Amino acid sequence: MTASFLDLLQRRVQGLGYQGTLLQTTSPDGVELLTSLGYRPVDHLTVLKIPASTIREVRAPKPPKFFALRRASDSDTDAIVQLDQSTFEPFWRLDAYGLSEAVLSTPRSRFRVIEDLRPGAKLPVVGYCIVGSGAGLGYLQRLAVSPTVQRQGLARALVIDGLHWVTRWRGREVIVNTQSTNSAALALYEALGFVRYGYGITLCSSLAGL
């Protein structure tokens, strides 16, 4: 990535009618270059990895009573989007199209939800997880649990289900990234055996309002 290439990219993007670009870099030097060209860092993601050997040692818990882990279906889409909207900041939220893109971004994927079976439950789906697999690697694409039922082991059950699925496809390791400010997610992943990897990812934007 060079200054001349980025300048050309920016002009091409503007020529297509876009107001700006959002780029990511995995090094401090990349951040310095983008900043010198008028980009502004808007978020930083921590990258974590867990090898298959560690996954095999992690026991898969059952969801608590009145919660069921099952395959996601098309009829769950509206509930999952509603859950996603209530869990993530506006910039990171997904709509139905974004969910489909996450599922299709790898050759194989596993899409599971946590269903709330309690009488009078307001939300039919209170958690979901998308895990992808390809070329010997696994990717924890998306994880969300409703704030109303957190700290009950639901996120842990979803993640472990996905991790063991990757190993059944002979994945060597699973990779995940999350906002560096998301202390709850980082604590969950590290408790499961994930370790932080490299510098991480910095997102930089050329849009003044982002």
> CATH topology of the largest domain, which one?
Aminopeptidase
Shape: globular
Number of domains as seen in the coordinates: 2
- Note the gap between the termini: 22 Å
Q: What's the SSE pattern?
A: HEHEHEHHEEEHEHEE
Largest beta-sheet details: 9 strands, mixed
Number of strands: 9
Q: Please state the average pLDDT score.
A: 92
Give a nutshell description of this structure.
The protein has helices spanning 3-15, 28-36, 52-55, 77-87, 96-104, 154-168, 183-192; strands at 22-25, 40-51, 67-71, 108-116, 125-134, 137-145, 173-179, 195-196, 201-205.
3D structure, described in words:
By secondary structure, the protein is α+β, with helices and mostly antiparallel strands. It folds into 2 domains: 3-44; 47-199, Aminopeptidase. It is 34% helix and 30% strand. The protein has 7 helices and 9 strands. Strands 1, 2, 3, 4, 5, 6, 7, 8 and 9 form a 9-stranded mixed beta sheet that branches. Helix 6 links the parallel strand 6 (137-145) and strand 7 (173-179). The mean pLDDT is 92.
